[in-house]
Amino acid sequence: MKSRPLRKAAPSPGWRYDGNTLTTIVTVAPHAVTEAVKVRVERSAKLVAREIELDGFAGEMSRWADAGDTANHAGLNTYAPDSLLLLLQTGDRIGYRPELVGDEIARLRERYAVALKDTEALVEISKVSAVRKLPGDISVSLEDPREMRTAAL
């Protein structure tokens, strides 16, 4: 069998929106690096007026993603709550349908509140279920899932 080199198809000129970083990505046709290219991006005046609502979005999404990863890997049969997953998919939904960014941003604060409440409840449940009785009168408590403490009863 003849080996063939991997070839990536050149992206077509156009634009796409990365909803997780709120970045417009513009792809232009190939040209010499010495050739000047001008790109003009026009944004809706309504969305520009709401730009302050997006301040800190990428960082907040990153911290929520860390919370979801922690919940999914903490053991003790815990998983990220559905409300957190819904919140984490905000950037993807924006990327798929950038024209709905205003609607998605309008729902963020409500989704934050629900995800925070559910995540805090998960932490409390984990604390209760993390106390295990072991042979030899030793109790194991995982108050912080990253830290294990043992104590004689």
Task: Give an overview in words.
By secondary structure, the protein is of the alpha+beta class. The protein has one domain (44-152). Helices cover 42% and strands 17% of the residues. It has 5 helices and 5 strands. The strands form 2 sheets. It has a 3-stranded antiparallel sheet with strand order 3-4-5. Helix 2 runs antiparallel to helix 3 and helix 3 packs antiparallel against helix 5 (101-129). The protein is flat. The termini are far apart. The model is unreliable at 130-135, 138-142 and 144-153 (pLDDT under 50).
Q: In terms of topology, how is this protein built?
A:
Blueprint: E1 14-18, E2 23-27, H1 45-49, H2 57-73, H3 82-88, H4 90-96, H5 101-129, E3 132-134, E4 138-144, E5 147-152
Antiparallel strand pairs: 1-2, 3-4, 4-5
Helix pairs in contact: 2-3, 3-5
